[in-house]
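hey m, so remember when u said the tokens were messed up on ur end? i reran from scratch. heres the input so u can diff it against urs
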Amino acid sequence: MPPPLTPALPASPLKIAAAQINPTLGDLAANTDRILAAVEEARESGANALVTPELALCGCPPEDLLFCPDFLAACDNAVNSLAEKIEALGDIALIVGHPAVMDGARYNAASVLRPGYAPAVYRKMSLSVAFNEHLYFSCGSMPLVVDIGGVACGIVIGEDIDSETPARLARAAGAELLLVLAASPYHIGKPSERARNLASRARENDLPALCVNLVGYQDEFVFDGGSLAVDRSGKLAARLPQFRETLFCIDCREGDFCAPLRDCAAAIAPDLCLEEEIWRALTLGIRDYVEKNRFPGALLGLSGGIDSALVLALVVDAIGRDRVRTVIMPSPYTAQMGIDDARAMTEALGTRHDEIGIEPVMRVYANLLAPYFAGMPADTAEENIQARARAMILMAISNKTGDLVLTAGNKSEMAVGYCTLYGDMAGGLAVLTDIPKTMVYRLARYRNQREPGDAPIPENIINRPPSAELKPGQTDQDSLPPYEILDAIIKGYMEENKSAAQLVKDGLPREDVAQVIRLFHLAEYKRRQAPVGILVTRRGFGKNWRYPIASYSYERNFP
């Protein structure tokens, strides 16, 4: 541990404000206004400085927008505009995250804007793997330490706290306080991992540290906020709530953090149970996708099954019942119990509900294709016609109303290809694509138990064996292992990178492992055509999963 420095203490404590905000990617004007509003709120609280999240000015991740010179120029102009406004205020500093072009290279940067000083710019050293930042940004190599209110503040960004070097360099340059701008996406276990890394950097360098994290949803990633401060020993001093915008102030006195200036009783937001954490992540994802893409509402095909029931409960929580529309599209194989339960749920939640039977469509297709199917037994071809007929109806209503179609396929089904291209996969947002079937049931029970007297999902739906209802008496377990085994195989193989042999060694049935892995790879072409989802696990389909389609996996024929 480096020797302690004697802090150059101000006459009064340094007051740092943290703005946990939800920017809209590319909307520089709106994001600038949001940041300035936070600056004004921080000033009213007596703060010396306001810290924003990583890339707060433009939104995160900007991806190929970074290849557009006009976008980069607009970001530069927005920083200059902020600098002018901060100069005019004269009594508060702003640390803002943004992309920057310097010396002919692009950087993930943070500018420190202080009245009476030229802007100081820090360039991120440790680039994000999740966002493929190496494609867009160069790595910085120099620390940045600036005087704010008489305290030497070291600036770092995001993944810089995952390694020792950036914080160590800031400490060696004289930092007495570490300020971290982060855009750290959520996955199960990530908040505690983020807190451990920040605490490690604080202990290693004998520095208090504040991490301000982004909140919101952007193209699969959910940013959970959960901004936090730790003292120089790594002990938690303050933590903001997850999944919502907020601003708070904290004192730095005698070289360490003390209690927040206001709302002291709630200085450390309580931990959430896993189901509530995932619920908030999903509802935030739905809300932001609808709002930021300016959809008037959402549309869902309701089957009477557990997956669509859960999605309905989520979307109502996310955007309100008045903006949600459901359609039941029964076939001759749809159980009356499922229709009754779907009706009961829409009545309980107060959403608009329509019923359109698809049997006439099925007859038309059967007659049309009869000459070409003659002599061949009925199989998935006929079953998939049902799913695609429903998709046509939903997409037609969407085209007419502008509402967003939500899909309800879960991670377990997506993994083994138990989904229909241009059928139940058709839509704009796949809400459950990273939610295993076993977690679907946990979330349904959580929602029913969350508020006394408010159980929107009928128990019949939760207790009924899951089925696609595409032929008489069909259930999922006719052709799949039990979901507890299926989900364990998927988690081990996909999220933990275990081999088939290791999964069997762990106690999972050999035949089930072989079947699931074979189906897993055969379904890759389907997943490439699936709508965008909401990531909540360490590794979900989409940006976190890049597997070739035209390949031969040595695991497919695992004996």
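this time it looks ok to me. Residues 1-11, 261-266 have pLDDT under 50 and may be disordered. if urs says something different then somethings off w ur setup not the seq
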